Amino acid sequence: MAKVTMTVNGRQVSGHCDDRTLLVQFIRENLGLTGTHVGCDTSQCGACVIHMDGKSVKSCSILAAQAAGSTITTIEGLAADGELHPVQAAFKANHGLQCGFCTPGMVMTAVDMIRRHQGQLDEATVRAELEGNICRCTGYHNIVKAILAAAAEMSGARVAAE
Amino acid sequence: MGVEGIGARVARKEDKRFLTGKGRYTDDMSVPGMKYAVFVRSPHAHAKILKVDASAAKGMPGVIDVLDGKQILADGIGNLICGWMIHSKDGSPMKMGAWRPLAHETVRYVGDAVAIVVADSVAEARDAAEAVVVDYQELPVVIDASKAIEAGQPQLHPEAPNNLIFDWQIGDETATDKAIATAAHVTEVTIHNNRLSPNPMEPRAALGIYDAGDDHYTCYTTSQNPHVARLVMSAFYNVAPENKLRVIAPDVGGGFGSKIYIYPEEIVCLWASKRTGVPVKWTSDRTEAFLTDAHGRDHVSTVKMAFDASNRIIGLKVDTIANLGAYMSLFSSAVPTYLYATLLSGQYDIPAIHANVRTVYTNTAPVDAYRGAGRPEATYLLERTMETAARELGVSPAELRRVNFIRSFPHQTPVIMNYDAGDYEASLDAAMQAADWNGFAARKAEAANRGMKRGIGMSCYIEACGIAPSAAVGSLGAGVGLWESAEVRVNAVGTIEVLTGSHSHGQGHETTFAQLVADRFGVPLDSVNIVHGDTDKVQMGMGTYGSRSGAVGMSAVVKALDKVEAKAKKIAAHLMEADESDIVIENGELKVAGTDKSVPWFQMALAAYTAHNLPSGMEPGLKEGAFYDPANFTFPAGCYICEVEVDPDTGRTKIVQFVAADDFGNIINPMIVEGQVHGGIAQGIGQALLESVHYDASGQLLTASYMDYAMPRADDLPSFQVSTSNTPCPNNPLGIKGCGEAGAIGSPPALINAITDAIGNNALTMPATPQKVWAAAHAAK
Hints:
The complex is a heterodimer.
Chain A: E1 2-8, E2 11-17, H1 23-30, E3 49-52, E4 55-58, E5 71-73, H2 86-93, H3 103-116, H4 123-129, H5 141-161
Parallel strand pairs in A: 1-5
Antiparallel strand pairs in A: 1-2, 3-4, 3-5
Chain B: H1 15-19, E1 35-41, E2 47-53, H2 55-58, E3 63-68, H3 69-74, E4 106-107, E5 113-119, H4 122-131, E6 133-138, H5 145-148, E7 164-171, H6 173-181, E8 185-193, E9 205-211, E10 216-221, H7 226-235, E11 245-248, H8 264-276, E12 280-283, H9 286-292, E13 299-307, E14 313-325, E15 353-361, H10 375-393, H11 397-404, E16 411-412, E17 418-419, H12 424-434, H13 440-449, E18 453-462, H14 470-475, E19 484-490, E20 496-500, H15 509-521, E21 528-531, H16 549-576, E22 583-586, E23 589-592, E24 598-600, H17 601-610, E25 623-628, E26 637-646, E27 653-663, H18 670-690, E28 721-724, H19 742-759, H20 770-779
Parallel strand pairs in B: 1-12, 10-11, 14-15, 20-21, 27-28
Antiparallel strand pairs in B: 1-5, 2-4, 2-6, 3-5, 7-15, 8-13, 9-10, 9-12, 13-14, 16-17, 18-26, 19-20, 19-25, 22-23, 23-24, 26-27
Helix pairs in contact in B: 10-19, 15-16, 16-17, 18-19
InterPro entries (chain A): 2Fe-2S-bd, 2Fe-2S-bd_dom_sf, 2Fe-2S_ferredoxin-like_sf, 2Fe-2S_ferredoxin-type, Beta-grasp_dom_sf, Diverse_Oxidoreductases
Protein name (chain A): (2Fe-2S)-binding protein
Keywords (chain A): 2Fe-2S, Iron, Iron-sulfur, Metal-binding, Oxidoreductase
């Protein structure tokens, strides 16, 4: 048992866990943040994607202890002041989710994707970037549409702000 | 239609919780004192259990208990059952072998559950599970269904000699043989339908909670039909009587059929909770899901299609062997019979059809319904055969289909189904136009200049949904009725709750069912809540599968709304001293037609509950329930066209366009319907191009992770062009046919027809991997 401390969704949190505890287990079991999901055991499906120090990470591929001292954002921390993040809003507007299970990972991946590409995305790039996230419901059609819509809106907002 | 009513493209009410991480799935549930379960599973495909020794495991850190198959047998927990009786053509009932929730004598596939370990954490339970010593005596194994029914093969169940479960037939064999004998042309093909793993993204899970104070059980589980789960667990497995068992299917992360069935794990978790005195939660990992979730498809068929001199089909003869795996899952017997062979007429007027189906035990995971369930198998068989025939006869695939389309309705096929409405040519024309079929030759020539082989293929599918009139399915062997229930509760402030026996696991019922109410009463969508998935809240229901929630579940809601409307009008008429026949409901008001008199909806509702001024003799309150039993199956149909480019150097197929033109009858929310089609097509493309369950000869599952089983990913798929041209269903109040399975049914043959067109070789099986396509392309030279 080790004591692990990190900042999650803007709040410093601590918990005791086995050395072998994965970050996703720590988030779900210790912190009770069940929006981050586990859909496989080979780091393929991406349902567990969170942001660690600003980058998207599969939280099943890292131990909780390795994340000590880091700054984590989970799906629960994305919407500010009760307003959906533009990516969340775009998923809703474009019907980019059905059963909702892959959705948190998809959204967290999309936010990071848009950031890295500074909103300059096309369909082929989005599809290639989604390689590590599996959805069984949507056929990806509306997920791709949602990410492109969010990217356009966010880069438009950035241009307007500049 | 209003902005939130029937036909409106309303964004989903349920999305907010899923997008903000507030969804509540079974594994998210946590109750005080809860412990975690891991199952000890057979590593052998076939073996006798000589001894289960849990003594070391029981002493390990955190372990509460280890329970095995002898204990669950001693406690009187029953066998798992198949709920649809099929009789062989000799009149004998199907041969159902025993399926124990925990095996105590014999294991019959890799993953068969042998014991449950309950511990403080999943990790400790897993450690202890590895310390449970099971002595196995290995037995010979058979994987292939065609081989399993030969003499001298390993026998799985003493009840089923030669592993044959039933040998069933449908149609007129004599008439069909005569048609074949007199035909101008007979197309003969062998069709393989590959075994698939459904793979909803949420793995199965169960939380069993036994309350000793009330001798009451609660089961949270990943179910598409919690009431059926309660019924079966109560009536057949002796877990508890129905009034002592509450089943809750909270948010469920996809099902695709695989979460219809009652599996060993939820039964064992409930039983283990009583035995250990603690709540017991089990969550499947993905490898367990591949091993133990019911698989789909796995048919091999030989087909003879007979044509007259004018290319009209005069007979169709099919012989199918269907692999049902090691045990008969809940609806496994219905899938390759009444959900398959009854659709073998397709969209075509075929005077004589005969199908023979043999179902077989093998040392593999149980096989049951997976999205489409029998109808994809029928469609793939027919549409591959039609394409082959068109090539043999030297006519265009579209023309061969046109010549044979059914054009007047109702149409009675030779295989039970009575099609009620449709316009198959409209879908074909819409798809061909959307795909620019006539421009294909130029695109093919352009691709050839780049060294690419371009091909185009179509598929005209029909399916039967809603399943189905209870008396009809009862006469065919179903153990349950297939109606649906609904209850509409108008609260005193006018807000409305709709309780439905349908279950949403991605389909968006919380939105579409609310749209019905908004449409009827003109109340805001936000004032309507849909309640589902809990046997303590909803009295009874048959759940969601077979694209039935719209056609059957919503029809029950409509019936209940009719009753609410009638009473609301009586109350309003009384309040306004008008005749109830003059009352109309618009925009949330009850009005006296042709006057300016009106009562707001909420005021009428309040009057119902204050009961100060109701019509003489009227009961207070406003709550009505209804059961709806469908009058017929519904028959969605459509045409799918796929265009591909094959790289002859690598065998890699690229889908350059995919067009779907569907007839779903009336539509409540086109956005949601399109989403269903997209997802279905993706699963169909997955079957045709990528996915296949593989066992080795010893029965080890080679495709037990996402590293080995090729799930469709975003960059495997194109965007889809979908459209609808609808003929309303005449047999239900909303004119709905259903849309959940069409994509998975119509797409595989369109894709394989396109690839075989591109490479000029018709001999290709699914999945069309680059290696297979390359080999077939080069064999064609």
